[in-house]
C-alpha cells in the first residue's frame, strides 16, 4: 500500500518539529571516530557497506544526535529498527544483544579516552 502525499508531508512536518526541539551536537569528527571504532554496522557487523547514523534511542522517543546515542548502521538495520527500542529489536531480529551492548560500552569508553584501544 502506498502512503499518500499528505500523510508523508504530515510525517515530515512532525519530524521537523521533533528535530527542532532538541539540540544535536554530533560533530563530523565524532562521527568519523565512531565509524572507525565500530568498523562496520553496530548491529549486524556488516562491513564495506555505506553506513548511516542511527540513534540508539530514537528521536521520536526523546533521543538526539549525540556521540553517546548514535551508532553506525547499514541501511537494512536502520530501516528495520525504525523507532523501536534497541534491545527488543535486537531480540526480534535474533541479533546478539549482549555483544552490541558490550561493544557499545567499549566504544563509549574509547571515545572518552583516546589512548584507550577499542
From TrEMBL:
<protein>
    <submittedName>
        <fullName>HNH endonuclease</fullName>
    </submittedName>
</protein>
<dbReference type="InterPro" id="IPR002711">
    <property type="entry name" value="HNH"/>
</dbReference>
<keyword id="KW-0255">Endonuclease</keyword>
<keyword id="KW-0378">Hydrolase</keyword>
<dbReference type="GO" id="GO:0008270">
    <property type="term" value="F:zinc ion binding"/>
</dbReference>
<dbReference type="Pfam" id="PF01844">
    <property type="entry name" value="HNH"/>
</dbReference>
<dbReference type="GO" id="GO:0003676">
    <property type="term" value="F:nucleic acid binding"/>
</dbReference>
<feature type="domain" description="HNH nuclease">
    <location>
        <begin position="29"/>
        <end position="79"/>
    </location>
</feature>
<keyword id="KW-0540">Nuclease</keyword>
<dbReference type="GO" id="GO:0004519">
    <property type="term" value="F:endonuclease activity"/>
</dbReference>
<dbReference type="InterPro" id="IPR003615">
    <property type="entry name" value="HNH_nuc"/>
</dbReference>
